[in-house]
Design a protein that fits this description.
Blueprint lengths: L1 H26 L2 E4 L1 H11 L1 H22 L4 E19 L5 E21 L4 E15 L3 E17 L5 H68 L4 H36 L6 E4 L12 H11 L1 H22 L4 E14 L10 E11 L7 H67 L5 H36 L1 E2 L4 E2 L8
Helix pairs in contact: 2-3, 2-4, 3-4, 4-5, 4-7, 4-9, 6-8, 7-8, 8-9
């Protein structure tokens, strides 16, 4: 039994080193990410995504506040109490003024319900209030005054109606904010794509450098053997050694570039620094063409630029209307009808209330301002025409941008096919050249050229994939349209 235990212990001792690496790998699983998964992570976790969401929420609450401004507003104002001890001038019955020391406490409360009238630019209101005065002498004398109800209106008859213009502008501003959020989602996808291909390129360059280092190590050893046999000259051996040393330095640099790209990638996606990530090459490319006219139409319909341009024109027209309103005859109407009563006892203050009315009509007539108002109107009119010209130019430039982006996108699929085939051919050429060098049919120069062509072809292939996906998300951003699935890009803002 003792011998069996010793054999078991020795066996475990030698087997543990073989199982330990596998246990370590099991504790730190490797994440394999596709491009789609990377984009999804960026839209959920990146700082840009958080910022875009909060910007939209700010726009949302601004819109809610605007709508609430047209709802009835209920408020209460109270002062309980206001104590005043002072020496004040009092006018006597004979018309003379004397200074008298007074001590009084004033308490009041007022309940007000008001409503903006968007159509006319005025405001109607209903008030109810009570006031109590305690005159403090040798004894306290109390009196009450109430306004059980009063109804009033404040209305400019010919003035500038800001409510009218805001009801046109604010919905456009809110809808523009929603479209900007959708556009920012596609911007995030574009940035995530750039980070993805930066890391993917570094990852592939590291693998290429490893392969080149291994190949040059083998070829350098073969070259030394041939040199010892006198089959090659010293300059060829030295060139092989130089290739070996350069590949070693290239591998070290590739590792540094890979770690740097990895840190930036994780930082943008909000991933933990301990996560081990491997990116999967996006070989499945959607094969579809985009109709240029449809892309331009969708872009003009869905882009926030369209609403921004429309809003700019309305704002310029609003400023012109405001300038004109300040240069003409204006009338402001203020009217109140209500009930009021006063008494020394609270029980009597609401009995037999008396009518009270107030009517005020204010008139503003510009007579002579030395052309200031006229100049403001001219400036506002000139600016309105300038804005319209800028908007027309912006629409033309935007249409041309979409047109060129779509034309560029439609040729990228063919470029991917060509660069993919070139990558395969360059790899086969290098392998064939390497074998010929090993058997001594060629010198080092064709081998070096084949290796450079192999690496360049791989980089061109990755670059063509990158250009395709960046162009893909850019067109989605410009048009807010998913041409792959033939539907508009939308978000459920009601359940945001």
């Amino acid at each position: 039994m003792k011998i069996q235990k010793k054999i078991l212990c020795v066996t475990l001792f030698f087997l543990i080193p073989f199982f330990l690496p596998h246990l370590t790998l099991a504790q730190i699983p490797e994440k394999k990410l596709t491009l789609d998964e990377t984009v999804t992570l960026a839209k959920d976790n990146s700082t840009d995504a958080v910022g875009a969401k909060h910007l939209y929420m700010s726009n949302y609450w601004q819109h809610q506040s605007f709508k609430a401004g047209f709802l009835p507003q209920l408020s209460i104002d109270a002062s309980i109490p206001n104590l005043n001890r002072s020496i004040s001038p009092i006018t006597m019955p004979d018309g003379s003024d004397v200074f008298i020391s007074r001590s009084l406490a004033n308490s009041s409360a007022n309940l007000s319900l008001s409503q903006a009238v968007g159509l006319t630019g005025g405001r109607v209101f209903i008030n109810s209030g009570i006031q109590r005065i305690d005159l403090i002498r040798d004894s306290i004398t109390t009196s009450f005054s109430t306004t059980p109800v009063s109804i009033g209106i404040s209305q400019p008859l010919f003035g500038f109606n800001s409510y009218k213009w805001e009801k046109q502008i604010e919905p456009l501003r809110y809808e523009e904010g929603k479209r900007q959020y959708i556009e920012e989602q596609e911007n995030i996808a574009m940035r995530a794509t750039k980070h993805f291909f930066n890391l993917l390129n570094a990852q592939i360059n590291k693998e290429i450098s490893k392969t080149n280092y291994s190949n040059n190590d083998t070829l350098f050893k073969i070259a030394k053997s041939r040199y010892d046999l006198g089959k090659i000259a010293e300059n060829e051996l030295l060139e092989m050694e130089l290739n070996y040393l350069n590949s070693q330095a290239g591998l070290e640099q590739a590792k540094i570039d890979y770690q740097s790209a990895m840190l930036r990638f994780k930082s943008y996606l909000g991933l933990a620094e301990t996560d081990d990530i491997e990116l999967i090459l996006p070989l499945e490319i959607p094969d579809f063409k985009i109709d240029v006219s449809k892309a331009v139409a969708e872009a003009l319909k869905n882009s926030p630029n369209t609403l921004s341009n429309k809003k700019s024109i309305i704002e310029a027209e609003r400023d012109l209307a405001k300038a004109k309103a300040g240069n003409r005859f204006n009338v402001n109407l203020f009217a109140i009808y209500g009930l009021a009563q006063s008494a020394y006892a609270f029980s009597d203050v609401y009995k037999n209330p008396l009518d009270q009315q107030q009517l005020e009509i204010g008139i503003q007539v510009p007579i002579l301002d030395w052309g200031i108002s006229k100049g403001k109107v001219k400036m506002a009119k000139s600016y309105s025409e300038f804005v319209k010209a800028i908007v027309n130019q912006d629409i033309t430039d935007f249409e041309q941008e979409v047109f060129l982006k779509v034309l560029h996108f439609n040729i990228l699929f063919n470029q991917i096919e060509i660069s993919g085939k070139a990558d395969i051919v360059a790899q086969k050429r290098y392998e064939a050249t390497k074998q010929r060098f090993i058997i001594g049919n060629i010198d080092i120069i064709p081998l070096n050229l084949a290796e450079e062509a192999k690496d360049l072809a791989k980089q061109n292939y990755i670059s063509s994939l990158r250009k395709f996906w960046e162009a893909y998300y850019e067109i989605r951003k410009l048009t807010h349209y998913d041409f792959q699935n033939n539907k508009e890009i939308s978000l459920d803002f009601d359940n945001f």
